[in-house]
Amino acid sequence: MKPIVSIIMGSTSDLPVMEKAAALLNDFEIPFEINALSAHRTPEAVEAFAKQAAARGIKVIIAAAGMAAALPGVIAANTTLPVIGVPIKGSALDGVDALYSIIQMPPGIPVATVAINGAMNAAILAIQMLALSDPSLANAFAAYKEGLKQKIVKANEELKEVKYAYKTN
Fold first, then answer.
1. What is the pLDDT of residues 14-57, one digit of tens each?
2. Class of domain 5-134 as given by CATH
């Protein structure tokens, strides 16, 4: 089984955040790989990875980075594949520096960017992209979204059982 999604992080210290993306891809039975590459410490490896990803069968790249957060942009500059950036919290600026670094890409080099530490939403975006050409994945994702809706409906019903002297509903 060859991976079709690649999760790349600037450091293994990002793994606790990125595990959420890996877990969701795993739940949807989407083959993925996960690696650590640094735009600053291993620039040649990042460039080679990005240039070879499509030929290896990768369809979407999720790239996480903190602080200067160059990794998603460097990858996007070296591939035609969609890149989803995940800014990682952890610096003195609580990830805002990473968010700005990832989201402010120059014209022609877009990186779809999710919230700080938003790995799960990055995986959801990747699933939505893949579902465009995979009807069974589209159906599975629709069921997932319905499940999210049902959780809220159930929670709201449970709130009706919470008693307070002045609660009217």
1. 999 999 999 999 999 999 999 999 999 999 999 999 999 999 99
2. alpha beta
Q: What is the 3-class SS of the chain, one letter each residue? A: CCCCEEEEECCHHHHHHHHHHHHHHHHCCCCEEEEECCCCCCHHHHHHHHHHCHHHCCCEEEEEEECCCCHHHHHHHCCCCCEEEEEECCCCCCCHHHHHHHHCCCCCCCCEECCCCCHHHHHHHHHHHHHCCCHHHHHHHHHHHHHHHHHHHHHHHHHCCCCCCCCCC
Q: How confident is the model at residue 92 (pLDDT cuts 50, 70, 90)?
A: confident
Domain boundaries, the chain: 5-134
